[in-house]
Queue: 2 jobs
Job 1
Amino acid sequence: MAEVILKNIKKVYPHQEPAKKKKGSEEKKTNLQITDEGVLAVQEFSLNIADKEFIVLVGPSGCGKSTTLRMVAGLEEISGGELYIDGKLMNDVAPKDRDIAMVFQNYALYPHMTVRENMAFPLKLKKYPKEEIRKRVDQAAEVLGITEYLDRKPKALSGGQRQRVAIGRAIVREPKVLLMDEPLSNLDAKLRNQMRAEIIKLRQRIDTTFIYVTHDQTEAMTLGDRIVIMKDGVIQQIGTPQEVFDHPTNLFVAGFIGTPQMNFFDAELVKEDGRYAVVLENARVELSEAKQANLARKQVQPGPITLGVRPEHISLAGDASQAVRGTVDVAEMMGSAVHLHVDACGRDTIVILQTMDLQGAGHPIPATGSALPFTFGGNVAHVFDRETGRNLEV
């Protein structure tokens, strides 16, 4: 298998002649950097991917994640930097000679071929012996649970089955690196959940390095050993799912990772007798010992901040005089919990209310327009610089 190293990888798309604007059309906004060379789609992308590691590139549409994947595959030319696979420089190596396989979003199956023929096709191109081809296809089909479909054509399969075939066609080659570009985005919610589990099982069965692209942070959190979060062609943070959830490096990562997303408030960071606390309306919350140590080590000064608190970390307060005051706007029943949209500090704030406690006792759902005072613990408060959005603890 293979280690993949990307050193200061850059992708620049040259300037194009501006097309005539159609009447009534709107210009597409982009935050990508524009230089004399062209549009910088990916900037200074550096990442060491260990052998057999599962890396997920995640971010909103247009952030450069698929472009990065296509540069690894050789489908996009690298404008700058160096790409190494298994210790070999790959910048100018043809895609067929990189010993990688790619699974696309739209499956890219040959409609006139059976499942067996689709899976065998890349091996036939490399002139493998017939018996070796049959053995590899049968083994891959068994791993993916599609043995009974080998004689069918793609049109006779469901979306999830077609995706399994596309993955099977990739793994029969036993590539050093398996690239997956939003492979589940065309599936419905139930199938996506099933296929996520299938990919986790597949990862346990085959020894290869995975690079997976998605805009779905749930996929990123459940699949990746490490997550690379991108925005406007720039890496925002690299870390394990737990690291980026617990310690987001900036406001973008904090808001992107987590469902529902983190709540943000304008607040004050105060320091009295050497101890830090955050003040939001009537609530004054002293920060945890770990946060005290981090802020003191970085010599963070008191002042205006952006406070981040995840919905699941907000607690309803019995004493409204020492809490943030809110008013219920909308209650969304989610089954085991209710997501309350609360107008607090002039912002739409989400509070999660469990419908049942551990003893099975039900909790009444607050009526629209009712007061909902709440607070939060000092261990779950995230402190961000109001100007730069940087996490002041990280």
Note: The chain has two domains: 4-13+32-252, 253-385.
Job 2
Amino acid sequence: MSRSVHGGRHELGQNFLRHLPTVDTIVRLVRRTEGPILEIGAGDGAITRQLAALGRDVRAVDLDEHRVRRLRRRLPSVSVVQGDALRIPLDRPVVVGNLPFHLTTPILRRLLTDGSWSEAILLTQWEVARKSAGVGGHTMLTAQTAPWFGFALHGRVPADAFRPKPGVDGGLLTIVRRREPLVDPAERADYEQFVRAVFTGRGRGIGEILPKRRRAALKDAGIPPSALPRDLSPSQWAALWHG
């Protein structure tokens, strides 16, 4: 295949999924959802073909114009579009994607701040998936967005499942937009600044890091003063904010 005008595999971050059990798990998770599907990073169509078989409206996006042409020929029932995951409209209720590993964080940030989608099923680097789901501690990004989104981990995907083989394992992550936010969306910018200040603040535990006026909320939220910001649950963060 000819080289894309956007670069070769390394520039495009292409690691194609070849692991049928993982494809089956992704499709099983998609079956639980409703409505039209947007697939990010369709590649050679390993996931796209199975999504098309669901009989739902599927739009598949890829940056590589050559793969887009091939998928259009192979899957005429799918709307295959050439586009950049950092710019395409996120306007379908279900988002599916084997995300380019080098773009995982910017794509996640965009998903969590843009679009009208309801559920996302994403294949990312293992560490990103694990930390996003709060296994071993939350990241600042997930703490900032958890009042509006729920995160869940659905397994580790070995590097051998991809071709070419990447240097790290993958992880299967789902994100669901909360129907009842834990914090008023109108307060989101201020809330995110609050979380950032706590994550970057000085102290040996949350009891020392928090501003004095908020420390009284620790007991009501069931948070020990020695806890670290990464240890707090979404409901505990919301309790501190409202306190």
Note: Residues 6-12 have pLDDT under 50 and may be disordered.
